[in-house]
Design brief:
TEII; 254 residues; S-acyl fatty acid synthase thioesterase, medium chain; lipid biosynthesis; alpha/beta; Rossmann fold
Length: 254
Amino acid sequence: MEKVLSCFRRSPEAASRLICFPWAGGGSVHYARWGTILSGSIEVFAVRLPGRESRSRDPFFRNMLQIVDEVLPLLLPLLKEKPLALFGHSFGAFTCFAVADALKRRHGVEPVHVFLSGASAPFSAIRIKAPKRSDQSDGDFLRWLTSIGGTPPELLENPEVLKLFLPALKADLHVVENFSYGKPDVPILSCPLTCFDGREDVPHDLQAWRDVTSGEFTVRMFDGSHFYLKDPENEKILLDFIRKSLEASEMDYL
């Protein structure tokens, strides 16, 4: 479990757990540290995908099913112990949703809340028409990466670091660009679903996510672009919202 799910602070006294899925090319550290910020009220686990951090020698996944099949068995025991929520940003929003969908379809269980950030629903027109980036030349790819912001300039200017970073990023984009999911006739989920996004990011069809759940649907917008959640003030507001949402879920869980 520790190979795939990173937890900086184990909190047996926590009333609920939050499982976080990385953005494309991302590791587990950014989210794992949320467990220290949330001060034990929520136990945070960050998904660590192959090809990065302690899994640098593991081959990248090539499709969404591989991610789902690895993560799902680890979450089932956790779901039996206490309320569990899922969070994902950008590429992580798709992997987060794919896991929630598989939990419901295969096992008839679901998280108490799903938080999706910086991504259109997979069946929305905006997402389907989005240009594919994973097959671009490194030059074009880096120009696009620079345009969306959030990547430290010192990383983009360091050829040795880029040599390590770009393969993971492109591998993750390959997964999401080849992930298809049709608009459901009826909602697959019944739990609350919240979408977050940056006001200055490229437009995302957040409202389309409403079709995947019969539960409460909420949209929260933040100042900033694609990586709005890296801003300390935005992060504080975001985590406070998640904390309050899970406190409400705990009451329903009981």
